[in-house]
Design brief:
By secondary structure, this protein is of the alpha+beta class. About 30% of the residues lie in helices and about 25% in strands. It is built from 8 helices and 15 strands. It has helices at about 35-40, 65-75, 85-95, 125-140, 150-160, 175-190, 270-285, 285-290, and strands at about 10-15, 20-25, 30, 55-60, 80, 105-110, 115, 165-175, 205-210, 215, 220, 225-230, 235-245, 250-260, 300. The strands form 4 sheets. A 6-stranded antiparallel β-sheet has the order 9-12-13-14-8-15. Strands 5-4-6-7 form a 4-stranded mixed β-sheet, with helices on both faces. Strands 1-2-3 form a 3-stranded antiparallel β-sheet. It is globular and about 55 Å long.
């Protein structure tokens, strides 16, 4: 680098203690788990694992952004939206062995930094990093020295091809479980048409829905797997309640906005781009009233 400044890494990766979760970063660029899943799936053809048998399906948890769905549509393969929990991906992976439509090889992931494929029935952070190394190698196979294509360029090129699903998660930790449960109950009543959806605000609400899933392999049905608020213009917010133990509960708010390829808005900072979605979701849920919080504990 000029002036002898320390070289900035082109790729960074972090794992949890057992290596199943992963985080990918570039030079001053954070890759959301949702985008990481989509980029890996889009590059399945350059990954050694999928050379003998091509990718058959992509799966993601409901709170994860729909970025991977765009890739599946472009490839002409199924995209599955499941409840949170790796067991739902495992069923899809085992469909061939159970005499059902084969969905493996399959790539899957969750917004909570879990990425994997049908080589193992669990998240595999080391595998995700190896995928990114293969992707970087592919994009730099003819790159002149000193002109390395980095992580941010690969992700931005992905947005230009498939569009961007801008995404953020806000966690409100250790809130009182009772009022938080009342808030979720109120949202569920909106979804069932038993309570009016608040009007006004910057983003009009298109619908409020409770997510349910019917497993395509064993036919099991899972109800009440989170509430999503769909806004006009291609934005949505998901609210889930977890951890109702002695230390309270955690309310998780996931916000997403879909942007088409070529939309200049896609280059804006994530939190700035999603501010109207977050504000609209907070208004619909009346989250401050039920949690007593005017700001999240953690923003991802």
């Amino acid at each position: 680098p000029p002036g002898g400044a320390p070289a900035r890494p082109v790729l960074g990766a972090a794992f949890d203690g057992d290596g199943d979760r992963n985080m990918i970063v570039g030079d001053g660029f954070f890759v959301t788990p949702s985008d990481s899943l989509a980029v890996i799936a889009a590059h399945a053809h350059v990954l050694p694992q999928f050379r003998a048998e091509p990718l058959r399906a992509i799966a993601r948890s409901m709170p994860t952004s729909a970025a991977a769905d765009r890739v599946a549509a472009a490839k002409g393969i199924p995209a599955f939206e499941t409840p949170s929990g790796w067991k739902f991906f495992g069923n899809l992976m085992d469909s061939r062995a159970l005499g059902q439509t084969p969905y493996d090889p399959l790539i899957c992931g969750e917004e909570s930094f879990g990425t994997g494929a049908s080589h193992i029935r669990e998240k595999d952070g080391v595998w995700a990093l190896l995928c990114w190394l293969s992707i970087l190698a592919h994009h730099n196979r003819d790159t002149p020295e000193g002109a390395l294509v980095g992580v941010s360029s690969i992700v931005r090129d992905h947005w230009a091809t498939y569009g961007r699903n801008a995404y953020t998660r806000h966690d409100y930790e250790e809130v009182e479980a009772g009022p938080a449960g009342e808030m979720m109950g109120r949202l569920a009543r909106m979804a069932r048409g038993e309570e009016a959806v608040p009007g006004g605000g910057e983003l009009p609400v298109e619908s409020v829905e409770e997510f349910a899933y019917t497993d395509p392999v064993d036919g099991a049905t899972y109800e009440r797997q989170g509430v999503q608020v769909l806004f006009q213009g291609g934005a949505r917010a998901v609210l889930r309640l977890s951890g109702t133990g002695a230390v309270g509960a955690t309310v998780r708010l996931y916000c997403e906005k879909a942007l088409e390829p070529g939309d200049p808005e896609a280059q804006r900072p994530t939190q700035e781009l999603l501010a109207p979605v977050v504000a609209s979701a907070l208004r619909v849920a009346d989250l401050a009233k039920y949690t007593g919080r005017d700001a999240p504990t953690v923003i991802t």
